Amino acid sequence: MNENISLNEIGKKIIFHIDFDYFYAQCEEIRKPELRNIPSVVCVYSGREEDSGVVSTCNYEARKYGVKAAMPIRLAKSKLKDIEAIFLPTDMPYYHDISRNAMRIIENYGELFEQVSVDECYVDFTKITNSDFDDAKIFANSLQKNIKDKIKLTCSIGVGPNKLISKIASGVKKPNGITVVSREDAKSFISNCKIEDIPGVGPKTAKKLESLGIDSISDISNKSIFELRDALGYKTATFLVNASNAIDYSQIKVRGTSKQIGKIVTLKKDIANFEQINLTAASLCTSVYENLSNKGQAFRILTIILILENLQHVSFSKSLKLYSASFDELHKNSLFIIKEMINNNSISLDNIRRMGVVVSDLKDISGQDSLVNYFEN
Ligand code: DGT
Ligand code: CA
Ligand code: CA
Questions:
Q1: Which of 116, 257, 289, 325 stands 20 to 30 A from 36 (CA)?
Q2: Which of 28, 61, 111, 120 is catalytic?
Q3: Which atom of ligand 1 has the smallest separation from the CA of 44?
Q4: What CATH class has 23-92?
Q5: Residue 2 above 80 pLDDT?
Q6: Residue 56 CB less than 6 A away from ligand 1
């Protein structure tokens, strides 16, 4: 797949890595705000004896006392001895619910999205940010605020020219941080990182490098792949030499069974009348409908996204009573929601920069006789 992407295209990308802060512990704070100012520790109890098991994560208050993930619960308790602290068992279904809601907000911007774990994702925001790192900073702020306002969840965001740089950047300022590393700064940024900061480099690789007299990223960048391949193998050597030069060709992997279909476009400048809004909505709906029909699917949730000139994101979702595969229903509802959103938020038409139509809660109906007539009313 890489061959089809020109270097020029890669050279313009702006990738976000978003990581939710102290995730399980923050989920607990969302439903029990009284936990916010005291150390709280989420534990996986093994059940063998009281307090046997490990810490899954803890809030930043608890981290001040040296409590960490994977630490035995007993050790964590000893570190928090004489301190008012709370120990809680994990509640995975609840954390997954929060994760789903937060990820949906991010996914609803309608760009290439890859969820990598319950609390982490990558998104290609090249288009929304016009491939401009100053715009990306503003946009990251607005995205962070959007998630905080809607779910009360904080996250840390790394912005970079590729997945590698954005992933490392998101860990630089935590919690609730934003770190932007522009294309120009990427090489010096990575040179100042430790070898173990490169995702995928474990103690074994670090040891092998050390035995070659390599103990910094700059050392690696001065080597050629051929010098490292005997010790590390060709694949790892290539990856590391590239990484040490801030190069990473890995792509955002949109999941094959995407749970939504959407299309988002940038509007012409100075849209001044509803006719142009209508035309844009019709073309977005046509594209979404074609995609939906090709996949043989019906939808139930319709989301409209408006991104304003200041990169503020306004979205509204409507759940239909029944699944629908009807273009008319998609179109009619989209127009209605767009008008309501514009009126309810007093948005002036020339302030709308991008508009998106996304359908989700999809259902396979390819076995049906007539797709178009399915549930059509
Ligand atoms: P952060 O990102 O440093 O603010 O803190 P977390 O807690 O979000 O850490 P992260 O992103 O490494 O992990 C996400 C969640 O995965 C975390 O909330 C709990 C779970 N987790 C992480 N490490 C461990 C572990 O060693 N054991 C268990 N059972 N769960 C873990
Ligand atoms: Ca996290
Ligand atoms: Ca994480």
A1: 116
A2: 120
A3: 29
A4: alpha beta
A5: no
A6: yes
Tell me: pLDDT of 7 over 70: no
CA of 170 to the centre of ligand 3 (A): 10
Q: Which CATH architecture has domain 7-22+94-185?
A: 2-Layer Sandwich (3.30)
Q: What is the per-residue pLDDT for 3?
A: 35
| Architecture, CATH, for domain 260-364 | 2-Layer Sandwich (3.30)
Backbone angles phi, psi at 295, to 5 degrees: -85, -10
For 45, how many CA atoms within 13 A lie in the half-sphere containing its CB?
Answer: 11
Closest C-alpha among 284, 326, 322, 320 to residue 305? 284
Q: What's the pTM? A: 0.81
What stretch(es) of the chain map to CATH 3.40.1170.60?
23-92
Q: Which residues contact 212 (CB under 8 A, 6 or more apart)?
A: 228, 231
Residue 90: which of 109, 69, 115 has the closest Cα? 69
The average confidence (pLDDT) of the chain is 90
Q: Name the segment(s) of the chain with CATH classification 3.30.70.270.
A: 7-22+94-185
pLDDT attached to residue 203: 87
- Cβ of 57 closer than 6 Å to ligand 1, yes or no, is yes
CATH architecture of 189-244: Orthogonal Bundle (1.10)
Q: How far is CA 154 from the centre of its chain?
A: 13
